[in-house]
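User: Okay, second chain of the day. Same drill as before: sequence in, structure tokens out.
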Amino acid sequence: MGKNDGSGGTFIARVWYIITPIAAYILVSNICQVLLAMLYQKTVSEVTGSLSLFLIAYSGNINIGITMTGAVSGWIAVAATAKREVIRDELRESILPIKRRNMGYLIIAVTGCIALGFALNILFGITGLLANSTVTSDVQQYQYQVSFVPGLIAYGIVMPFIEESIFRSVVYLRLRNFSTVLTSAIVSAALFGVYHMNILQAVYGFIMGLIFAYSYAAFRRFAVPFAMHSLTNILIFTISYFGLFTTMCTYGWFAAFLAIAAMSCVMVFGFRKNS
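Assistant: Same drill. Structure tokens below.
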């Protein structure tokens, strides 16, 4: 590895090497969001008539637009870094044999990840963790105050793409310059969990982050963790948006989704010596 891959530095240097892209994204994103929010508030306070009513009536969609604009701005700040890391990663071998990297196994892996996402959300629901988490409730209220299509695009496409670009294409791949697949997956997943800023989402983000990172290492395609993240968000957002999630919060549904996730894992990663 070259001198700029973090492999030869001290522990502090490596931490800085890993944290810098996340910090850059958060800083640029937040600055952009604050400026746009100030502009929006100033506009609302100064305009009158139908325009004022429009801005107030569609405040949820406008707020999510501000959030997404900030997120895209933050992504632009680290996009070149992500590209470099992906190019460097092309030299590494997959942890799966080539027979296990076809479209059939990919679909099984994505299906298993979606099932795990549902199982975790249902578990949080039936145990009362969702209802008792004030922070999570506030986040959900913010997410579901938008119209369906803008919310679907934001939470199902834009944010999964940006988060996978940062935490898998940059953080995970940078960790791989001096760590094993397992260590890199655990650390990148932990950072992904902490990034969500509340305990319940941190646990969920850590578990799903492990799957996303391991799938990247297995299939060698950015599209795989992105598809897992995106489709899981799309389906959960849709079901929750239309009020169907509460009907699924039973141990029966939890067991069914967990079984699908477990079977998918065995089918993709099990019996590797026989592949």
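The chain has eleven helices and no strands.

User: Thanks, on to the next one.
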